[in-house]
Amino acid sequence: MSDTAAEIAVTVLVEGPSDVAAVVALAARAGFDVRRCGVSVISMGGVTNIRRELRRVRRDRRHAAVAGLCDAGEVEVVQRALRHEGMPSSSRADMAAHGFFVCERDLEDELLRVLGVERMERVLQGEGELTAFRLFQQQPAQRARSTHEQLHRFIGTRSGRKIRLAAVMVSALDTDESPEPLARLLELVQRHAK
Fold it and tell me: Most CB atoms within 10 A, among 5, 129, 148, 166?
């Protein structure tokens, strides 16, 4: 389905391309293709663009609903943008009522916490990245960090890795597990999807 007039059931605003990859992979794992179901997942190119994107989406009559994900450190920026668009938002519960869900640190950290270190290392092995990760762990700046922290940092150290691994990490989740912000977003998307 193309994004032509009156075809977008829900638009999901996310910070960057790795978030898009994770949302699309989670939807596919749940059995639906976001584009065929009238869902548009948009990378805003950074959370500071949310006000502009919200305004654009809400004024474009093709978009029936809007939702999104943000990191805990971005809550105030998102709340201000929601309020500016007439959506009262002074708490995370208010944000959720408007379809915006908060990742405690960021989406990668949410996925890492659900997967755990062992499964994430298996993901890296499957992607041919485990040897590079072992070398990364030996760097002086990494030695004092926990393996979880090392993994979190490693994911974003090379161009394209974060985007590629986001979808792979989602695929590695068991069917009955998903980080809460992603699970809640998917429930909303499924309610609105065509």
Answer: 166
User: 121 vs 33, 65, 149, CA distance in Å?
Assistant: 28, 38, 13
Q: What is the pLDDT along the chain (194 residues), one digit of tens a residue?
A: 344 444 678 899 999 999 999 999 999 988 888 888 889 999 999 999 999 999 988 887 666 789 999 999 999 999 999 999 999 889 999 999 999 999 999 999 999 999 999 999 999 999 999 999 999 999 999 999 999 999 999 999 988 999 999 999 999 999 889 999 999 999 998 888 76
Q: Which of 188, 166, 173 is nearest to 12 (CA)?
A: 188
Helix or strand run (H / E) with residue 178: none
Which CATH number characterizes residue 14's domain? 3.40.50
Are residue 65 and residue 118 in the same domain, yes or no? Answer: no
- pTM, two decimals, is 0.89
63 and 156 belong to one structural domain: no
Domains held by the chain: number: 2
Beta bridge partners of 8: 63
